[in-house]
Every structure is written in C-alpha cells, then in structure tokens.
C-alpha cells in the first residue's frame, strides 16, 4: 500500500518492539504444526512395527502388516490421514520431507494489534522424530506490525550469516506498509505470497477491531475463508482499517469493491468516495435522498463508479434500473454514446435499445453508418425501426465496398503472380486465383480449409495456386500452398484425398510439379507469345 505511511512516534519504537517474540507460544506452535503434512514413521522388527505419528505425536507398537512406504492411510492413534514413511528409506536428516509455511501471528495489546509474520520450516531426523521439529525463522524476511486506531508501524529484519551461524539482527523501521510476504519463484516452485493467519480471535476481543469486517470482505470479495486456508491482503487490510475505519461502513454498504481498490490497488477513488466521511450519504458523495434510493436499489461499487462517470444526471435508482435492463454500466455507457449520436436523451435511447443485445447491434450499426456516410441527424436513420434489417444491409454494403477495395489492391499482385506461376504442360495447368472469393469457393467445393487462407493470400503473406485440367480450368481439382517462391508446402484435393486418390497428389503428379517448379526456379521464361519455355522436360499425358 504505497500511500499508507507508518506514523508511530520514533520514541515509542523500542517500547513496542520489546513486546514482540522470536518463537511461537505452545498454543501457536500446535496451530502451525497442523499446517504441515502429517506423517507416520515406522520401523519393522520381526512381527511388529514401531510407529511415530506426527499428527497426534503418539508413539507405539502395532502389528507387522500395515500400509506400505509412501502410501496414505489412517493414523493408528487418531485416525487422521497421513503419509506412511519407512525410516530405513531415509538418511539421517530426512531432507526430502522438509516443508515450510508462512504464518502471520496476531496478538492483542490493549486496543492495539501486534502482528509478527514468520516463515517456518519443519524437518525431521531419523532418530529423533519429535525433537527434529524445529523452526527456521524468516529465510526471506520477517516483518512485525503495530496497528492501533490512527497508528500503523512496520519493521523488518532479514536473517544474516555471521561467524558460522544464522543470526537475526535488530528490527529496522520500514515505510510504507506492505504485505508480509511477496510472491517469488524459487527453482521450480512458485510462491504466491499467501500466508495463514493464527490468532484471529484477537480481533473479536477488542472494541476497536471487532467490527473491522475482514471476514466479510474476504469471503465476498476475494472468495477466501481467511480462518481456514492461506490468504493474502489480511495484514494490509487491517493496517488500512486502522487509518480508515470507514472501511466497515463501505463493506456494510455493499461497496466491498471500493475496499479492494483501496487495499490491493492503492486507489482511493476520491471522485466517488469521501474517506473522511462519517455517514453513508457523505461517504458516497450523495444527498440523503440519493443515498436512500441507492441503498434500496442494491447498487455495488462498480455501478456507483460508472454512474458518477457516465450518467450523474440520472437519479441512482434509475441508473441501477438501466444497468440491470441493459447488462451493466458498460452497456449503459455504450447506450449513452448512441443517444448522443441520435440526439436523444439516455432514457429514450434505453427504451429503444431494450436489451444488451440490441445495444451491441445498435453500436455496430452506427459504426457502419458513419463509415458509409449516412446522415445520422435524421432520427429514422440513427434509430431505424427495423434495426436488424438496416444493420445487415449496411454490413453487406460495407462488405461489397471493402471487397472492391481489396480487389483493386490485389490487381497488381495478381498480374505479378500470373507472370511468375501460370503454366501449362501435358494437359495440366497452374492457375492463379483472381480473388479471395475464388479461394473460398475452392475450399467449399473440395471440402478442405483453404478458404481460411484467402485473406493471407490477398495480403501477400502466403501464395495459393490451383492445379487444374487444361480442358476444364474452371473446375476445382487440386489446391497448392507455396512455402517461399518455388517450394510446395502442401497440395490437397477433395477432402484432403479422403477417397479420390490413394497416393499423395505431390507424388502422383510429381513429374508435372517438378517441371513447373524447375521452370519457376529458372526465372519463369516465356516465348514471344507468352508460352512457358520448358527446357528438357519429360512430358506425360494426364
């Protein structure tokens, strides 16, 4: 949160820092322990197994037969599903079973909150299963927070290697406030920056925090159950609440999106909201009547924001009604643009549009009408009764004009292709398509996908040619795509040779294609009458 600067008096830093802790309490440790994968370690002696369970920290003897190494099965003591591990499969330290997690501990200090964020690692040893559980604090950083009404402060310290061991230096004051852990990628592992909150009961134990609405905001805005699974933004949310208790009012008003903008994106949306206000009307920058109508209509933050930006001349309840009718604020904005084009009020335009689909159709029609030069000052032109028919007619006319423009642009390329590739020999012929429509017709007739190449051919991004019988040059038969100027990328006939040809066309008519490509490679030479000059070509009747 780039704007949330720490403001604790420097004289109080040492006093507050003495209240923080380096290790969790036993109760907190038990809560952390449940975050790791439960294991049942076992060693087999004759007809019995000696087992150690990390889930319930029980130790005992069971029968020889049981789950295999690496399988998941119930703990013999508490019944919880755990991974069974044969101790003999591991080295002394069991490094492959090491795990880490990220935790934010909450503790109450009067009306203030003490939060310490730690990275905690659990590992096991071969001979001392339970004693092998230890905590490695903050490999990438450790942060502490002091939050009180009107006061926020954050400190940070990073583990350092000194004199052959890891040490934790003094806390360093930081500003502005940030999340405890940042997303990162380590090798193949990607950490998203989430953490588990432990000690959430501290919020409900104080008057200053019991109404902070953190749970509601997380559940409804972020779809997270913050007391049951790892989350993000919980600490930053509490820091923001310390400075802006109006967050409670925002969440209760259904404006959780505004809180998300504040906490996650550092946006206050000052044109829409007043974060110094003490009542809903002033907070939303409305009159009491507007606020009452808004609350009765059930508007959310995005709708409130779009109302301010799009149609502040409308009453809130009318705007919400239009949003529901037309499919949201974006559609209302689009409808307003259409209304301005037609020279009518937004309410009349909305009655004309009726639905989201009609708004989208109207927007598309007006775009094409401008391109075609229609007189949109005429009401019958800007708001035709038969909108669908007028839209389709404009689309067809515009398509014809574009085809004409494309054809004119392709004319020069067409002549060049004809000079280079037009070829005939032994009853076969290479034909250059006259336009994109011919390529589309080719694909439909032969039932293959060349129609999708039409635009790329016209633009010069690829080259499509037709192989025809010389006596029937208008009849689709084989289609060629070139790679470069004289290499065939692919050649296909009906249904990509679904049944017409047993052999690949490039192989079946290789004698003709080789002669043609050799002619192209040698410069596409022609005689005075424009006929191809073929050097030493072996001709064969098709």
Description:
This protein is an alpha+beta fold and 542 residues long. Among the domains are: 10-198, no CATH class; 410-521. 36% of the residues lie in helices and 20% in strands. It contains 20 helices and 20 strands. The strands form five sheets. The chain has a six-stranded mixed sheet, sandwiched between helices. β4 (72-74) and β5 form a beta hairpin. The longest helix has 35 residues, at 387-421. The chain is flat, with a radius of gyration of 37 Å. The model is unreliable at 132-140 and 537-542 (pLDDT under 50).
Chart the SSEs and their pairings.
Layout lengths: L12 H5 L8 H8 L5 E7 L2 E6 L4 E6 L8 E3 L6 E6 L12 E11 L2 E11 L19 E7 L2 E7 L2 E3 L2 E3 L4 E3 L9 E3 L2 E3 L4 E3 L2 H4 L9 H8 L12 H10 L2 H7 L3 H8 L16 H4 L4 H10 L3 H10 L5 H11 L2 H14 L3 H8 L2 H17 L6 H4 L4 H35 L1 E3 L2 E4 L4 H11 L7 H5 L4 E7 L8 E5 L5 E5 L12 H4 L1 H12 L21
